[in-house]
Amino acid sequence: MGTKKAKGKEGDISRRYQDLIEIARLVSTCMNRDYLIKTCLDQLSQRLGKRARCVLMERDELKLTCWVGKYDCPIEKVPVCKESIVWEVVKNRVPVNLTDIRQTEGYRHTLSDAVKIKAIIPIWYVHPVTQEENKVGALIVDSGKEGSPISSKDFDYLKVVGELIGAAVGRAELVEHMIESIKKNEVFVGEIAHNFRNRIAPLGGFTRRIEKLAKDAGLANEARYVYQEAKALETHLEQFEKNMALLSREWIGIRDFGVPTT
Question: CA angle, corner 64, sides to 177 and 155, nearest 5?
Answer without folding.
Answer: 95
